[in-house]
Structure formats: structure tokens, C-alpha cells
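pls read this protein:
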Amino acid sequence: MFVFLLPYVCACLWGHVGVETEVLRQNRQQEEAEDEIEYPVEAVMKWGVWEIPMEEYLAYKLESVMPDTYESEALKAQAVLLRTELMRVLQEQGEEHLQVSGDGLEKWYETNEVMEEGFSVYRQAVSETDGLYLCYRGDPIQASYFKISNGQTRDAARVWQTEKYPYLTSIACVQDKAAQDYGSEVTLSKEKCMREIQEHIGERYSAQELWDGMEFTYDTAGYVTNVSFFAEGEEVGQMDGEAFRYLFALPSASFEMEQTDIQVIFHVTGVGHGFGMSQYGANCKALNGETYDEILKEFFPGTELAKIE
């Protein structure tokens, strides 16, 4: 009788243990999934809000800001900065959702498949830095980046008169001078420039008077920080260097101005605002064998990588 019943006893005992084991395994997987906090990105489009998984959004965003011909370590450094931007927004919003501008995402929303050749490098860069962002003393940093420096990055403490961003300091980027778009010229009519300045400062003084009394102030990196206008022996107006740059569609605020009787020539170096990571410089460092974390530490001294938990 015992021999006859033995298979049933074993089935009951071990079968029960097997069921318990499977239940425990499923519970553990569920707990681990709950521990992994996911932040869907709410992209505000013209027609409404498009909710996208964070890592998918990052791949789309990465494609829009860096060429796929750049080295993988440079792409990964940029992916970390983009994720850092999101974590900073999340911290400021104080909620478990991220709402950002959907500008530039239209083409991704309109197609169900990413057909563009080379897009896999963006997914890979995001995947290989999964959850990583850059922080300073535990908080996500101001993750500034731009295309090409004029030979060095800018010091935020000197320009913005604040100690809030000690990691945004001046870093030598001599390699940027070899970039194809490093130097450029923008030529405009003198009349157009004078008119634009008068419209910005006001009609109280003539365009010629404002033009003759224009003075530039440069920071230690060679970028224009302020444009002052003088008339009748006193300062009558100011313009931020970046505002002046955008007024005349200059690639950067690192420029020298040459004028003739009829035209103005801006000799510009670099592309972008000059704070944080030079993308071209990051790619040069990657070509020299540096890893993405080494690149980030060079451009943002005193910072460290953290992981979303």
C-alpha cells in the first residue's frame, strides 16, 4: 500500500513546493518591477500631449542634437546629459511625471517604425547608459552643451555672477579649432544693423548715435557678455551678448565686428553658447580613446554619475 501511494504523496509534497516556489518567484519579479521607477515623458505637441517612455524619448532627442557619425562614447556622454536634463525638470516639477516641449518630435509621432539608417546608434547610446545622469552634491546638474567652442568653454561664475554652477567652468578645447564650422562670417548691411539696434533700444536716440556709441564687453573666454550703448556722454541702453547674437543670427557670441561705410562683417568663432560640453570636443576626446564618463568629468569637474532608482 505504501509503495502504491508513494507517487501520490511525492506529487502532493513536491508539487506543492513547486507551486510555492513559482509564486515566490512571481512575487519577487513583481517587487523588483515595482522598485524600478519609470518616468514616462509627456511631450507637449501642437495637438495635445504625447506620452513616451523616457528611454525612447531620449533616443529621439539624441538624434536631433548629435550626428550619428560621432563616436559611441561621445553619443553616450550626450545621452547622459539629456537624461540629466529630464531629471532636473522632474526635480523642479516635483511630480512623478515629466512634461517637456515636443518640438522636433513630429516625425517620430507620425511613423510607427524608425526607418532612418543609423538610428540604432542612438538607441544603443541610450541603452548603454541606462538610468545614468550627472549630479553635483546629489542634485542633477545644469546639463549645458553646445556644438563647437571658440577654443575654450565659458565660466558661469564670471559670466552669470553666481556660484550655483561651479562645474560650469572654463575648459580648454583647442581641438575645436580644427572643426569645419569653427570660423564663419556674417555680413549685413550697416543700415539694417543700425535699424535693428534702434528698434531694440528705443527711438529716443538716432540709429547713428546708438551705433557710434556701441561698446562690447568680453568674458575671459572671448565671448561677448554685454553690449552697451552711449549717447550724449551717458549709457542709454544695454543688451546681453546672447541677445545681440540672436538679433543678428550669429553662430555664437564669440565674434569681432568689422564695419565699412555700407556693411558690417561679423567674424565669428565657435557655434553655440559656450557653456558646458562642446560636442565636437567630446567627439575628439572619444576618438582619442576616452570613455563617456571620463569625457563628462573633464567638461563638468566635481560632478559624478548617479542612477535612477
